[in-house]
Amino acid sequence: MRRIITTIFLLSLMGAGLFAQQTLRQAPVNVTNDEAVARKVEAINSVAAVNDNANRLVTCGVDVVDYGLSKLSGGTFSLWTISNGGQISAAYQYFPVPTGATVNVSQVDFLARYLPSGTSASFDVNVQLFGVNANLNPTGAALATASVTIDTSSSSQFFTATFAAPVALTQDFAVVVENPSDSSLQMGTNFATAGDGLGDYYAGLRFGTTAADWTNGSSINIGGGLDFNVDFFFGPYVTYDFDASFVADASCLLQGETTKFTSTSDQILSNRVYNRLAAASFFDPTRPDSTFGWDTNGDSNLDIYGSEVDALIGPNTGMVDVTLEALMLGYTQNGICLDTETSMFTSGPAANAVFDSALVSPKTYQFDGLPASFNDTYSWDFGDGTTDNTNSPSVQHTYAISDNFTVTLITSSCGDNDTTTLDIFVAPDFAAGINTLSKREMNVYPNPVQDILNVELELDNVEAVTVEVFDMLGKLVSAKNLGNVQVGEFNLDMANFESGIYFVKVTAGDRVKTDRVFKN
Known about the structure:
By secondary structure, the protein is mainly beta. It is built from three helices and 38 strands. The two termini are 76 Å apart.
């Protein structure tokens, strides 16, 4: 969903200065004694009281983005004198245009004061839009120009320049206020002595009348070892749109594991000039950026914030809605705008390829994936060159010969894969039996054996147990009746057996398990 946002940058004064011998001097002005600035500060503070993490749904409207004024660190601003006769003929403030955005500028507000010089009762100044170079200085021809008459008022006030038609800007730009007369125009910035510009150096001055005379604030000395670390309070009325969008690093959300969600929303949301939330987290990295809020479990509550988050997915199975709320917190109550994007994901547990085997007839085995409900797909490899890709959690397979085989199960669930293998021995017909004991219930070791073979039993119930040993030809070479047994370990003496392969068959009730043993 796309919202149109109109933003007004308003000029607010925060310090004073005069040009003399290539050095600027500032004269401090108290904000509380300047009615125009005080009203602006009060308006910004009232919007700042909005809870970042609540009351996020507010009607979109015209915003006044007082980026420079919002950086005021105290109750003082600065005034700087601009006049053609005083050699500082113009001032600029830089504004970024984020990649992919279009910022439409129709008007510009600026805060100014006429400084009586005895030359005239009023005079005109030019308000212009320019592209900028790598130093952020205005460059090229003016993109738009409007004339504003400055009256003889001795107090600060906001003047508005209206362009003949809105200007669509897709690259960074500068707002310029030029005083072509010899009359003195005082223009405001946040407080230079305090360095309220916070190192942005978005403001600059023209020392002369040509394009080559522009100087960025980082190269301007204002005396006392300070540079021009301030912002002019120039406020272009702008419109732009933004769209909330995001991607996830998985199409299915694994229960109990984190999924990375990344906002791909329009970059203007993350620009600190337009979004006060982005500015707050930029200048104070310890403060979380609540521009982007996430509901990752579909309960309509925001549970995590940030442009890129790792969210832990709960026990939800099936479809889960994930919602991104992208908030533009502007500089007026009417300039707060919210856009949301919701995507539906499948949620489920991780793949589990555990399976068991059971002999159902000579050379025929039953394989069961456990637990079957956890997996989306099943792929079987029986180790004898045959496979089963019917996506069945339970399969049967008949082997043609007696040998050792490695059975492999590959499962997938929620985009996750798991693989498990199980080694089985397919006994010859004479050694086979039905209802085979599991490996947990009967185990023989060591293998190969030198002298004593251990038979370890862990049956579910007490059963009559016999142990038989066959040679490769199916001849019974040893038999032992263990009696009624449930749990225990028993020894079988094979010291006098000839070297070779033997089959050890354990029968417990009507169940059988046969292992192949090598005798050294």
